[in-house]
Amino acid sequence: MNRLAPSILSADFSKLGEQVSLIEKGGAGIIHVDVMDGHFVPNISFGAAVMKSLTGKTKLPFDVHLMITDPDKYAPEFVTPQTEYITIHQEATIHLHRSIQVVKNLGVKVGVALNPATPISSLENVLSDIDMVLIMSVNPGFGGQKFIPVALEKVRALSKLKAEKGLNFDIEVDGGVTLGNVADVAGAGANLLVAGSAVFGADDIVKRCEDFNNIIK
Questions:
Q1: Which of 14, 18, 63, 215 is most exposed by smallest CB count within 10 Å?
Q2: Which CATH number characterizes residue 81's domain?
């Protein structure tokens, strides 16, 4: 099932609860939570307290994207009854298999993200251990960037590899996803579609979510 995952990095934080209610009303499937530490990526976003403030305020699950150094240390802070995925970056950990097991042992699904320059071959030996692969279609750190077209090639290759190996992980794409390209992204094989400014920058957030869903579903 394809799901729209609006990124609250682009939300108006003075109206965060209200805007989360709007994306839920519009049919969003999951809330994408971008966590940045100013070290692994050149920006700082927010920590677990902001995400936890939404617990119980929405029925939507959380899709936590840790763009941070030392994810093993901080991942436990993001576990709530609504946390579905915690995703770590392949580039952020020396011992990827061990980091994957750390997240799995928290009782949530584990994802691994790949930056635009990182090949999918780097995950060859852990694909059977993970629940999701996140293909970055921008360089991580800031919202509002333009989609990097090579991401589509990576999604197609990953989708083919998934079928060949008989695996069942989700494929997520994050960065520069808009109404204009989301059909191509979903058509390439992604089933989790992250959109930030394309959702929260709309005058009518509910309708924008509905427009995305009309395309991806």
A1: 14
A2: 3.20.20.70
Name the active-site residue from 34, 63, 170, 211: 34
Contact 169, 153 (CB under 8 A): no
Instruction: Count CA atoms closer than 13 A to 179's CA, side-chain side.
Output: 13
Active-site hit among 37, 131, 174, 211 = 174
Q: Range of 138's domain? A: 3-216
pLDDT in tens, the chain (217 residues): 999 999 999 999 999 999 999 999 999 999 999 999 988 988 888 889 999 999 999 999 999 999 999 999 999 999 999 999 999 999 999 999 999 999 999 999 999 999 999 999 999 999 999 999 999 999 977 666 789 999 999 999 999 999 999 999 999 999 999 999 999 999 999 999 999 999 999 999 999 999 999 999 8
